[in-house]
Specification:
The protein has 260 residues and is an all-alpha fold. The chain has one domain. 69% of the residues lie in helices and 0% in strands. It has helices spanning 16-31, 34-43, 47-50, 56-80, 89-105, 108-132, 140-148, 165-168, 177-200, 206-238, 242-253. α1 (16-31) packs across α11 (242-253), α5 packs antiparallel against α6 (108-132) and α6 (108-132) packs parallel to α10. The radius of gyration is 19 Å and the shape is globular.
């Protein structure tokens, strides 16, 4: 059997300012799920076990419920930009935290009713972050990139900060592209939202768990949006291909074992 030497690691030369900005984005990415781990400690379980706490009928309907929530959010979030100004991250977090508490206080029925509203607020917040980075949320491609942020694994599921696939997915503008993107995102997001629903139905502390979960979710997806659009803004402003920056970013958040 032949021994194959590992291919040499290709590290791109970046100027100090660009590398510092990329390092900051990587640090932000790695730290985004810390609050989610605190939520799991609060509800006393593990992320993979939360879905089992939901009724079978709810688990079976999560994909469709998530798809409907995304479709409603995609249109409603954009329409709201006409009359509602973008809000600071902390204010979005306050709003969704209060909604999570209300949803958890009423158990599963109110938690399910709160789901599409929270999804809309989250997508609206993501659109505001895109605008912060100089992208136009009215542009079809940017709107879909905002939706793509929901393909991140979620604050209760990330392993060691290596889930970067959602950053590298290419967005194509073709007929039915939005529905196709929603169809791809919905199954993964359904698992994430199922975990959220499960925490909100924890007996006695449902309201507290709902508030904590929404706080974690809003903080997480806003951080992911700032990483997603931060990388693209960095590529735009430094005149470096986004694929090059993404490759360097991946090395920072998930270095080969020989470099750890």
């Amino acid at each position: 059997m032949q021994n194959h030497e590992a291919e040499p690691l290709e590290i791109t030369e970046l100027d100090a300012e660009t590398r510092a900005a990329l390092t900051q984005l990587a640090r932000r990415f790695r730290g985004a799920d810390g609050i989610g781990m605190q939520v799991l400690a609060l509800v006393g379980g593990q992320a993979e076990n939360l879905l089992a706490k939901l009724p079978l009928s709810v688990r079976n309907g999560l994909d469709n419920a998530t798809r409907r929530a995304l479709e409603v959010a995609f249109d409603a979030a954009s329409r709201s930009r006409v009359s509602v100004a973008d809000r600071a991250d902390w204010l979005n977090t306050v709003v969704t935290t209060a909604m999570g508490a209300a949803g958890g206080a009423g158990g599963l029925p109110t938690a399910l009713a709160e789901l599409p509203v929270t999804t809309t607020i989250l997508l609206r917040a993501i659109q505001g972050i895109a605008a912060d980075h100089g992208f136009d949320p009215a542009d079809d491609k940017v709107r879909m990139q905002c939706l793509q942020v929901f393909a991140a694994a979620g604050p209760l599921s990330r392993d060691d900060g290596t889930d970067v696939a959602f950053l590298t997915a290419r967005i194509t503008l073709t007929g039915g592209a939005v529905h196709g993107l929603i169809a791809r995102i919905a199954p993964r997001l359904a698992t994430v939202l199922g975990q959220k629903l499960a925490t909100q139905t924890v007996p006695v502390i449902g309201a507290v768990a709902g508030a904590a979960t929404n706080y974690a979710f809003t903080s997480y997806y806003q951080e992911m949006a700032r990483v997603y659009f931060g990388l693209r803004a960095l590529a735009r402003d430094s005149d470096i291909e986004v694929e090059t920056l993404l490759r360097e970013f991946r090395l920072m958040v998930d270095p080969p074992r020989t470099l750890r």
